[in-house]
Design a protein that fits this description.
Blueprint: H1 2-12, H2 17-38, E1 61-65, E2 89-100, E3 111-116, E4 143-148, E5 170-171, E6 191-198, E7 216-221
Antiparallel strand pairs: 1-2, 2-6, 3-5, 3-7, 4-6
InterPro entries: Adhesion_dom_fimbrial, Adhesion_dom_fimbrial_sf, Adhesion_dom_sf, Bact_Fimbrial_Adh_Pro
GO biological process, one term: cell adhesion involved in single-species biofilm formation
Pfam families: Fimbrial
Length: about 220
């Protein structure tokens, strides 16, 4: 670029005034053309933009039917005499868990119901399968048992866990360790859940009184 400019100045100096402008214009034009020809090409650059998204099916609406009042299931007044033996079950009732307004094709996601609540605990044999709220219950060493996808419920020492629920139970299309499984008709047919009062695997220390428990069924895709 500097060499071209110096050459144009030298060319115009020896000529008379009349042809000076023509020669100078020609020289300048040539110089400008040379500048355009020798300009280096601009190097191309690029940047990659990763884009991702997770499309999830619409979650189901969970509703309960078959309750005695609103969202409460009242088993009524029960005699403690009928709970004097280990594995006793009394006052069985059932309600339905309905899953509606679910998404269409669920893809690879797994429909899952998670059960939460409070249990009697280790003080009673099998107490982790007995639901009881300590703050609102005066009855002792007794609780509610829940059996998923069934209208009857039982407690047997040989198999006390079969399909019975406990706090933290996870239910999906594969049977869990207790045998509870989400039926193939989960999107179209209400799922029955049986409830009863039981002393679990033992009957000692039973104290009569009010028995209360709150159980939550949460549906999501995992």
């Amino acid at each position: 670029m500097q060499n071209t400019k110096r050459r144009a100045v030298r060319t115009s100096a020896p000529f008379s005034p009349a042809p000076l402008s023509r020669v100078s214009l020609h020289a300048l034009g040539t110089s400008m053309l040379s500048l355009l020809l020798v300009l280096p090409a601009v190097a191309a650059t690029k940047v990659d933009v990763p884009v991702s998204a997770l499309i999830t099916p619409a979650p189901c609406t969970v509703s309960l039917t078959g309750m005695t009042s609103g969202s409460t299931l009242d088993l009524g007044s029960l005699s403690s005499d009928s709970l004097s033996s280990a594995g006793a079950v009394l006052g069985t009732k059932s309600f339905n868990v309905s899953l509606t307004q679910c998404g269409g094709d669920i893809g690879s996601t797994v429909p899952t119901i998670t059960v939460t609540g409070n249990s009697v605990g280790a003080g009673v044999t099998g107490g982790d399968f007995l639901f009881r709220d300590a703050g609102s219950s005066t009855a002792q060493n007794v609780g509610f048992i829940f059996r998923f996808n069934d209208t009857t419920v039982a407690w047997a020492d040989s198999d006390p866990k079969k399909k019975n629920l406990k706090p933290g139970s996870v239910i999906n299309l594969t049977p869990n360790t207790e045998g509870a499984v989400l039926p193939g008709t989960w999107k179209t047919t209400p799922i029955p859940v049986a409830v009863a009062v039981s002393t679990g695997g033992g009957a000692s220390g039973l104290v009569a009184g009010d028995l209360q428990a709150g159980v939550t069924f949460t549906f999501d895709y995992q």
